[in-house]
Write a structure and sequence with these properties.
About 45% of the residues lie in helices and about 20% in strands. It is of the alpha/beta class. It has two domains: about 170 residues, Bordetella uptake gene, domain 1 (D-Maltodextrin-Binding Protein, domain 2), CATH 3.40.190.150; about 100 residues, 3-Layer(aba) Sandwich (D-Maltodextrin-Binding Protein, domain 2). The strands form two sheets. It has a six-stranded mixed sheet with strand order 2-1-3-10-4-11, with helices on both faces. The chain is globular and about 80 Å long. The mean pLDDT is about 90.
């Protein structure tokens, strides 16, 4: 009995620091890593979310841009951070579901090194063509591409990202040959599209919305299940006979895998509360992002399904990134 009591005392002593840390969290500012340059969709979405989350948590949330390797550099930094809840990040679909099958050497494994807290948003992809492309519909684009195999070039925000793989999925479905021109981000890709150096592009709606509304780019299809409020006249790929070309981009909230469950629960609760407020929903909708805020197990299941779905596309195209 005496030995048992001593053992229980030792366990309590060892567990007390973790318990105290959990109860006190957060007692200082939280670092929120955005793995892309400032000003892009991920940065905009993060600022909308963290402004409200900080109020809920009662502590400042400091955004830190740490770009590189298509978003992997910033996410890897989170995976290796101290698992105390004070370093979290927004992570894109490419970082959590695509690069696993694309890259020979990943700096982390999404399902083994990260706590998948919740899906933050879903962002529809939209297919556009430049002013110099003589088409008015998706069917006309397919016909043009088939008449000129390998002559039309499409831009992407980087190899392996959602804009890239959305177009690869479209190519497979339509059985057309297009040339991929990867860029280091959305801004240079859109600039070259506007300049006529490339002819078409899939990208997050917020990236292209202004150019579409000004008439500089023509929107042909939304790669989502439903039309979007900002562009109600643009049909979905499903409406145009390509239901398999579904390419909603999405972003999730992540932390180091060893972060205590109670701390993860506090972060999850704050994020979901923020995402479900009308104020945050409206701000996100204004940039064509749909707030989600789902349970952690549901998000983890979704990530697994996306790894499998895009893995099939990657295998079919033979794309690899070293």
């Amino acid at each position: 009995m005496f030995t048992l009591m001593r053992l229980m005392c030792v366990i309590c002593v060892l567990a007390w620091p973790a318990l105290a840390m959990t109860q006190e969290f957060p007692n200082r500012s939280v670092k929120f890593i955005v793995p892309f340059p400032a000003g892009g969709p991920a940065d905009t979405i993060s600022r909308i979310l963290t402004e409200k989350m900080a109020t809920v948590l009662g502590q400042a949330i400091v955004i830190e841009s740490r770009s590189g390797a298509g978003g992997l550099t910033g996410i890897a930094a989170v995976a290796k951070a101290e698992p105390d809840g004070y370093t979290i990040a927004i992570a894109p679909a490419s970082g959590l579901a695509m690069n696993v099958n694309l890259r020979e050497n990943m700096p982390f494994h999404p399902l083994k090194d990260l706590a998948l807290i919740t899906q933050i948003v879903s962002v529809p992809e939209i297919l556009v063509v430049g002013e110099n492309v003589p088409v008015k519909s998706l069917a006309e684009l397919v016909a043009l591409a088939k008449s000129q195999p390998g002559q039309l070039a499409f831009a992407s925000t980087g190899a392996g990202g959602m804009p890239h793989l959305a177009m690869e999925l479209f190519k497979l479905t339509a059985q057309i040959d297009l040339v991929h021109v990867p860029y280091t981000g959305a801004a240079p890709a859109v600039n070259d599209l506007l300049g006529g150096h490339v002819q078409l592009m899939f990208a997050d709606v917020p990236v292209l919305l202004g150019s579409i509304q000004s008439g500089k780019l023509q929107a042909l299809a939304i790669g989502s299940r439903v039309r979007i409020a900002n562009l109600p006249s643009v049909p979905t790929t499903a409406e145009l006979g390509m239901p398999g070309v579904e390419a909603d981009n999405w972003y999730g909230l992540v932390a180091p895998i060893a972060t205590p469950p109670a701390i993860l629960a506090k972060i999850h609760s704050a994020a979901v509360e923020a995402l479900h407020t009308p104020e945050v929903k409206d701000k996100l909708a204004a940039v064509s992002a749909i707030a989600v805020g789902n349970p952690s197990p549901e998000f983890a299941s979704y990530v697994k399904s996306e790894i499998e779905r895009w893995g099939k596309v990657i295998a079919a195209t033979g794309i690899k990134i070293k």
